[in-house]
Amino acid sequence: MKRMADLILSICFVGFMAAALTATLARPPETASYWENRRLAALPEPSAETVGDGQYFAQLETYLADHAAGRTTLLRIQTGMDLALHRPVVNDVVPTENSLLPFLPADTQEPPAQVEVWANAMADNLQRIHETVTGYGGYFCYVGVPPQADARWEEYPWYLNDRQAYIRAVVAALSEAMAQRGVPYLDVRAALGLGSSADWFASRVDNHYTMEGAYQTYRVILEKTAAESGLSFPILGKEDLTEQTLPNPYLGSRERKLLDLAQRDESLSILLPREEVPFTRTDSGAVSPPTVYDLPDSEEAVVTYGLYMGGDRAHTVIDTGREELPTLLIYGDSFTNPVECLAYLSFDEMHALDLRHYRDSSLEDYIRELQPEVVICIRDYDALLSIPDNGGGSSPDGGAQ
User: Fold this and answer.
1) Are 317 and 351 in contact (CB under 8 A)?
2) E strands in 234-372
3) Of 95, 309, 59, 339, whose CA–CA distance to 218 is shortest?
4) Does residue 9 sit within a domain?
5) Beta bridge partners of residue 269, listed in sequence order
6) For residue range 352-400, what is the model confidence (pLDDT) as tens digits?
7) Helices 112-134 and 164-181, interaxial angle, to 10°?
8) How far, in Å, CA of 55 to CA of 47, rounded?
9) Cα distance between the two ends of the chain
10) Which of 28, 69, 219, 331 has the smallest C-beta neighbourhood within 10 Å, fewest atoms?
């Protein structure tokens, strides 16, 4: 009887595994996990070399784990249990009473000597871009903004790591290196006098800034540009704008990683000019609707950070037809998006590049061809010293910072 029971159990187990494998292989292939906010492993191609050294089977195991049927359901169950048990870190997110913050492991701390090496390499790279822009009479400025982990660092529980020593070393080293080379650099935290904590500046549930934080970033960038370039263009004050807070639920990147199980109430806002500025828009050469906000169809629809500029676009051009104003090139990554929603109002044309996706030419070739009067790069502190992500070459060790 016991042998029969063991046999039935084994058959059931094998049947379950076979059914799970069949369901997994039968699913349409996916390239990314929406909730985990990451790319999924691709199906590996077998070869004599990879099969022989075991790489193929390791890669296949990773692929099957990433694409397993019911994976999201299992993740939701595990995440819910971890939140119920008040784990200090869940899915690399630190759930606090007010915010959902990124986990900062100890190995993110780097010695000051290494920071100086990176800062000088980054400044050399930016000096080349600066010389390209000034060579035809334009103005260039590199802008650093505090991400959520820095703006809200005081909200971390005392027993978890923070990167304050590292961040301060990065900002100080880069500021000194840029000053030595005569390249304009703007630290938004210092320009706004944010102090030790700036919770209003950053989202509670996402890595990016709030619309207020983006507006203040827009303002100090343009004030510095006007003062140092001698160019004339409008800088919109709050009296020139109308703020609208959307009633829609906002799903920030941290909430996505927690599968929306640790909700924090936060709403997205938009800023609209009181005097409308007509414009045309193209994305990667294709005509797009003349809007800078991807507004939802209903008040119940979930919105994400992609509300601003419709998300990350490789190449956007907005033309307001005001030829008396200068042309702006703004580049970086997703931190430029809400600033772009305001910046076009101050220029004749605004060209925007997301260097993670733009491949048509090098940054310097684009600048030489367009010759915009103003070139602005916006990077958060975490990417401040990453040469590959900032328009040129490789890092000192051949990899990314």
Assistant:
1) yes
2) 241-245, 269-273, 280-283, 286-288, 315-319, 327-332, 349-354
3) 339
4) no
5) 245
6) 999 989 999 999 999 999 999 999 999 999 899 988 766 554 444 433 4
7) 40
8) 10
9) 63
10) 28
Task: Please compute the mean of the pLDDT values over residues 154-178 and round it to a whole number.
Answer: 89
Last residue of a domain, one of 69, 102, 135: 102
401/389 Cα distance (integer angstroms) = 9
CA dihedral of residues 363, 365, 369, 373 (deg, nearest 10): 40
Residue 10 lies in a domain: no
Domain count, the chain: 2
Q: How is residue 215 written in tokens?
A: 């507006």
Question: Of 102, 136, 155, which residue sits at a domain end?
Answer: 102
Q: pLDDT (tens digit, 9 = 90+) per residue, 216-274?
A: 999 999 999 999 999 999 999 999 999 999 999 999 999 999 988 887 889 999 999 99
CA-based nearest residue to 147, from 222, 199, 90, 212: 199
Farthest CA pair distance, the chain: 92
> Which sign does the torsion angle of CA 109, 253, 399, 127 carry?
negative
Which residues are CB-contacts of 367 (< 8 A; sequence separation ≥ 6)? Answer: 129, 132, 133, 138, 329, 375
Q: Are residues 342 and 210 in the same domain?
A: yes
Are 146 and 253 found together in one domain? yes
Helix (H, G, I), strand (E, B) or coil at 300: coil
pTM: 0.84
Q: Is the pLDDT of residue 280 over 80?
A: yes
Residue 94 shares a structural domain with residue 60? yes
